[in-house]
Design a protein that fits this description.
The chain starts with a strand and ends in an 11-residue tail after the last strand. The chain is globular and about 80 Å long. The longest helix is centred in the middle third of the chain and has 18 residues. It has an 8-stranded mixed sheet with strand order 3-2-1-4-17-18-19-20. Strands 8-9-10-11-12-16 form a 6-stranded parallel sheet. With about 525 residues, it is an alpha/beta fold.
Amino acid sequence: KNGLIVDGTGKKGWTGNLLIKGERIELVTEKNVRVTAKIIDCTGKVIAPGFIDMHSHNDWFLTSKNRPELTTPFTAQGITTSVCGNCGFSTVGIKKGSSFINMLEEENLFKEGFDRIRWNTMDDYRHLLEKNGITHNLVMLAGHGTSRASIRGKDPKPMTEAEMKEMLYLLEESMDQGARGVSLGLQYEPGIFATFDELERVARLVKKKDKILTVHAKAYSNLSGAYPLIPFGTPHNLLAIDDLVGLAEKVGMKLQISHLIFVGSKTWNTFDNAMKRIDRAVSRGIDVKFDTYAYHCGASIINVLMPPWFLARVPGSYTSRAALARLRLEFKFIERLLGFGFDDIQIAHANHPDLNRFNGMFLRDIARERGIPDFENYLDFAKMSSGVARVLMHRYSNPEIVSELMRHPASHFMTDAWIEVSGVQNPSSFGCFPRFLQNARETGILTLEDAVRKMTGVNAERFSIPARGFLGKKLAADITVFDWNKVRDNTSPSCTDASPDGIEHVFINGVQVVNKGQVKSSLRPGKVLV
C-alpha cells in the first residue's frame, strides 16, 4: 500500500497499491483498495517486480535438501527467478548410463552443491525439484559442455558424426522438455575443444527451436591461450566477439554473450572497440545482447587460464618439460602484455585438503608463503584440484567500464554467482542487485525505472518467461519491495558475504519470503518454469 509502483517496463513510477490473491496479482491501482487482507505499508518504498537473475549457477545447488543457506543470500537480494544452466555447465541433458558420471560429479566446479547426479533429462530434474520443493523460480538452459562430456568426457579430438548426433539429440530433448536454449562454455573443457562446425550445428538446432544461445566466449582479455599469440594482432577478446557475431549472423539465432568483462588493465582500452562491434551487429539486425554484473571481480576455475593445447594433453602436460616450458613462457608473455597476473587471482576454495588452508589468499602471496616460484605454485593448485580449484579473478574491469556496461541498451543484469559450502564467497552472491541499484542512485547513470527494467522486464522478455518481470493484473505475484534511498551492497574485499541493506519485502508466487529484510529460509514457493 502507498508505494512507488515501478512496473518493469521502464515507465515512470507512480504511487499506488497492489493486491495479491493467491499466486497472482489481483489489482494494481492508484485508487484506494478496501479489502480484508494483510496490509504492508510501503510509504517511501518502491514496489517492483521480483528481480530475475538471468545468469545463475544455482541449478546445481537446488537439488540439495534442507540447505537453505545455499540460496538464502539470493532471496535477500530480492531475486525471485534464476536462469540457470549457464557456461555449458547445466544439470540437464545427460546421456543415460554415461560412463562419465563420476567425472561430471567430481571434476565439477559445483561439486560441493549436490550429493550425486540421480537424473538425466530435463524432465527427470524437474520432477526431482518439484518433489523436494525449491526456494526460487527456475528457468533452465541445456548445457553443451554437460551433454558433450556425458558422451565422451573431455576428449579433445573432433566428435564423430554418431557422437555429434547423440549430443544434438540430448540438447534437443532438453529444449523440448522446457529448456529455454543452450549454453556454451568456450573457455572450459570440453567446450574449449569444439570446432566451428560443431558450434554451428548447435546454433542451427537452437535456431530451429526458436530458442536462445548463451555463450561464455573463448576470450575476455586482449591476450589469451585461445588464439595464436601474434604481436600487434587483433586483441583476442575482440576476435571472440567477432566469432560469435559471425556465427549469429550466419545462423540467425538469438545470441547472448555471457558476463561481458575486460580482464587485465591493458584489456580495458579495448572496451570502445568491443562496444562498437556489438552496436554494429545490432544495426545490421543481428539479435545480440550481453549480461553484466556489478563487480570488478568474478568467479571461475583455475583451469580457465590454461590454453587448449595444454589441456588437450592433461595429465601428461604436467610432466612434459617441453609443455611446461612453453606454458611458462606464454604466462610470462601474457602477464606482461595483459596487466593481469598471479597477484590478481584469489583462491576461493582450493578443492584439495593439503591446499584448503590457503583459501582467501592470492596466488602470489601463497607462493611466497610456500617458498616456491609463482608458476610452480599455480601448477600445484591446478593439478591437485583436477583443474577445478575455485578462484576469484580480480581486475576484470574498472568502475567506468561497469557503469558503461550498465548503461548500454543491450545489457542485462545478473549475478553469475553461487554459494559454496566452504571457502571464500563471491560477493555477487550477496550484493549484486542491491549494488546495481546503489550505483544507479549514486552516479545517476540510470534512472530508477531503467535500473529496475534491466533486472526484471527485459530479462523476462529475453528468455520468454511468461507472467513475470512486470507488475499487472493476473501476472505472477513475484514482487520485491525496496528502499531506493537506502538500498546498498555491504560486501567488501575483506568481507565478501555481508547482507545488503534496503531490500524490505519479497514475494515469490504470492508467498512472502522476506519480511522487513529477514529471509524466511524454510519456505519453498518456487516453480520450475517450462
